[in-house]
Write a structure and sequence with these properties.
Helix content of chain A is 47%, strand content 12%. Chain A has 402 residues and is an alpha/beta fold. Chain A has 2 domains: 3-169 and 370-395, Aspartate/ornithine carbamoyltransferase (Rossmann fold, 3-Layer(aba) Sandwich); 172-366, 3-Layer(aba) Sandwich (Rossmann fold), CATH 3.40.50. In chain A, helix 3 packs across helix 14 and helix 10 packs antiparallel against helix 11 (295-310). At the B-C interface, strand 2, helix 4 and helix 15 of B face helix 3 and helix 13 of C.
Chain lengths: 402, 402, 402
């Protein structure tokens, strides 16, 4: 891409961003469905602008000093590095809050800690997806503490809480997915009428979070897509999110339907997203046992679930199944890492043949996450992010060298 | 605050700093009482200048590259983030030295390691407060190794060792407290004749460090305050520090007295600082057992101490006790986190009612720590810190955005 | 040193660098012997330039944003801080990849992870020295994954993989050693005909990596030195590296010989480098047992090796042995930390007397490592590193203050 073309593309994105009312300034990014479509489109525009500048070697350092804090209550490599990359691209120093204790803190402890770590903070990224009913609630507790601290003059700035995966939603993932779709199909408008199959798939592991499929069905119906959800009996997602998906479909003129097999979901689909998750009822029970410290019951529950899981080994995304999709060429998507049959496990979510065909596309899909996070930081922390990005473009400072 | 007012305030602070002979350049900050009052006032002036610039959105980045190293031999969240914030505000990259082994290293190991980590370092913050007789000694060993390395041309710069809490003193805490007092009462001069009650308080935990109360009695008598120390029998502080407190009181025309009850200490006090700690004799015994790896004796000692502790549950800062203070409105202070009765524990150092009344004030008290640490870094690392800060003010580079 | 002298020295180094064809741009630095002497001299020239600028207070920040990733599969303090220092000196944010699991990942896991962490990365430093046959192979797997990711547009830049110690070579150490020798003897040319004794030495520990002695014999014979290797029977180094050492000696007109005693090796030596290591056959067996998870056999192997080790306690670098070296004044070298008899262990690699005499020289030897790493980063990541360094020199921006 020539520098001139890049500059024109970025200018067009910033012109779009100018005209959006995102409502994100001095706020957080916790759930896509509580945000306006302007907010979502704003994140995509800013993310793509930052990505193009990075690609073009233009510095996007908008902070001279300051912290980007992260708190991972679940192991993470990909999201950790996406967050670290976003922090670095904007000029923030990463500081990880390491909770040694697994106990779930509330009240004054959260309120006080949130303030004590935030004197120089611009963002607090939190992953807390293991306990149903906990993650999103915890993020809101942190958010309220920061509101108070800022209003009372304890904090010089109001850092943005960014949901890096909660029990309910995974917005940095779903917006990376949406940006991938926008780039693949040319525009958000072009997604209208496209069919996407969001389906459960078999994995030998246990207890994968619900936030990825919920993030998808809570987001994509807003764009007039035909979203089809499929999973074995008993693998339900949270009822509230399912309801939200239906409401969005109705508003947008798209559709949200549930079917009972992968085959049916894949039929003539433009996009497929097969992915393992645990039933929400199991996650609820698990949270209760964890709270009670009931390790015998936890073990029994895990055994029960793995046995149940094993009944659905045929929920695998194979080349045969892919033949039933639109022209046999649906776009395969995955948040990574996928459980690939014969590669990362004996039998898993996707056959080696299908995965290898789309492998680099899934890498591209993942590559947008650092920019989505950086965009959320910018939209939450700056009143006029388009102006800031335009200044960066005009200054044209090299990111590396001279 | 208007930009103009802020600029005038900072200029006045820097004018004050100009006229102080801190003696800190190319040295460390280990104990307040081995430093001059000029050094202490210099830290406060620089800290408040940096804080005001941060508040006004002015960049305080004085390092283009370089490391701020930290070594925490005890768990820490608040001080860790205060140090990380200070490093970021000045432009240093944080690098944490993680000692896997609990053994206490000495000699060539310390000497060599101190040099090997410091080739690009500007500061080394150390928390080592668990073993009486060890922490301060360790810091001095590191300091001597750095002196040699710098003199012999091994190190291009002489990083400053900053005491982030030792067995003896906790200067970043006590100077944050002092800055809080200076801002609350208007000036250091106004502290003359004010009565502060530094008292033990009950906590269900065991072995809290002595460095917080010692830091207070070793500092505040220098300012003509009436410092009253109270604790149950057997909860003595280090005799050397107690003696130092008396000497300072005599020099300044203030007073240092010890009483036997919280009630007496609180009587007509302007400020109260109730806080749990372990007796120094117990800490000494504990260190001996730890060195000997004598875990049975350690357990027995802990049980004995907890039993003794439990005799003094009535040492709690309650609303009733607060009534006895000056106009019933003494300033309550705490280094956080406090053990709050009915909130963070069944019964603790302070009642929920008292804590809630002063909660935000304790947050403000804590908010100065990042700036105190940054100020120590600047005074130890720059010959003319006021000139550097004045240049920052003049350059007026935005900390965020453009 | 005057600023003028420093500037002239740096200019001369950059003039030398201009005329070298290092071939490192967009590549990795894994083994010295697969790189040209131009590449090696280029690293030394760039390292010394960066060091002189650091010493002179000139900023070497060439990256405005971006990550320097590290992955330590073995504990490390010295190299960790050398890498952190290099990252900071060039302006990169350090991000450590923390592998919880000890299992050795391959295939899609490596390929995917390498890409997922690298969207904003400029370098990936890897230490993987514990398992013979694994470390170098792993680094090449990462390297190939990065090649693919960059070619396919997944990655905006191709980060450089930098070997921070593999099972085969330890180039950041051996090039620091070489820079120490160049500075001590005046030039690489002056090393011609100098005798260096690379010898095994007794240590009470077990399983020290082979990469240090291999790094030395694989590098120094290229400079016409007389390299003498000595170790007890059964402590062989990898045959391929030994062969390479002989080939280089032949090409350069130097020599590579093996003798059976420390005494013989030290005879009239200009330099001695006594250091413990484990036999490669043992390391191979160990790797096989580790792969098989055979902990009983691992324990037995360790006992056997320690017993064998104990037969060679007389392989200690003593003052008496040093008398046999050139004028009794050979340069003693060590990669640190050394096992010092009566200091860090009862009996070890070197007597306290000899070590203390050369202690500060070993600190200086180690002090070049951060600059060697920074130089590798610059040569691998910039097409014209001399131009970049010349711009830094000309810009003359203070690294600290104003």
């Amino acid at each position: 891409m020539s520098d001139h073309t890049r500059e024109e593309l970025i200018s067009a994105l910033l012109f779009s961003l100018d005209n959006l009312d995102t409502g994100l300034y001095n706020r957080d990014f916790l759930l896509t469905w509580e945000n306006s479509t302007d907010a979502i489109e704003g994140v995509l525009d800013a993310a793509e602008s930052i990505r193009l500048m990075m690609e073009g070697g233009i510095s996007t350092r908008v902070f001279d000093t300051g912290l980007a804090i992260s708190l991972f209550r679940d192991q993470s490599t990909r999201t950790r590095f996406a967050y670290a990359s976003a922090a670095s691209l904007l000029g923030l120093s990463l500081s990880e809050l390491d909770e040694k204790k697994t106990q779930i803190a509330h009240g004054e402890t959260v309120r006080e800690t949130a303030n004590m770590i935030s004197f120089a903070a611009e963002s607090i990224g939190i992953r807390d997806d293991m306990y149903l009913g906990e993650g999103d609630a915890f993020m809101r507790e942190v958010s309220e503490a920061l509101d108070e601290g800022y209003q009372e003059g304890v904090l010089p700035n109001r850092p943005a809480v960014i949901n890096l995966q909660s029990d309910i939603d995974h917005p940095t993932q779903s917006l990376s997915d949406l940006l991938h779709l926008r780039k693949t199909f040319g525009s958000l408008e072009n997604l209208k009428g496209k069919k996407i199959a969001v389906t459960w798939a078999y994995s030998p592991s246990y207890g994968k979070p619900l936030s990825v499929p919920q993030g998808l069905i809570g987001l994509l119906p807003r764009y007039g897509m035909d979203v089809v959800l499929a999973h074995p009996e008993g693998y339900d997602l949270l009822p509230d999110v399912v309801k939200q998906a239906g409401d969005f479909a109705e508003e947008s003129g798209g559709s949200f339907t549930q079917v009972a097999s992968m085959e049916e979901a894949f039929a003539n689909a433009d996009i497929v997203y097969p992915k393992s998750w645990a039933p929400y009822q199991v996650m609820e029970q698990r949270t209760a046992y964890l709270r009670g410290g009931d390790s015998d019951k936890l073990d029994a529950l895990e055994q029960e679930c793995l046995a149940k899981n094993a009944q659905f080994k045929n929920w695998e995304c194979t080349a045969d199944l892919m033949k039933g999709t639109k022209d046999g060429e649906a776009l395969y998507m995955h948040c990574l890492p996928a459980d690939i049959s014969g590669v990362s496990c004996e039998q898993g979510e996707v056959s080696a043949e299908v995965f290898e065909k789309y492998r680099l596309k899934t890498y591209h899909e993942a590559s947008y996450k650092p920019y989505v996070i950086a965009a959320m930081m910018m939209l939450c922390r700056f009143e006029k992010p388009a102006d800031i990005l335009r200044s960066l473009l005009k200054e044209n400072k090299p990111r590396r060298g001279f």
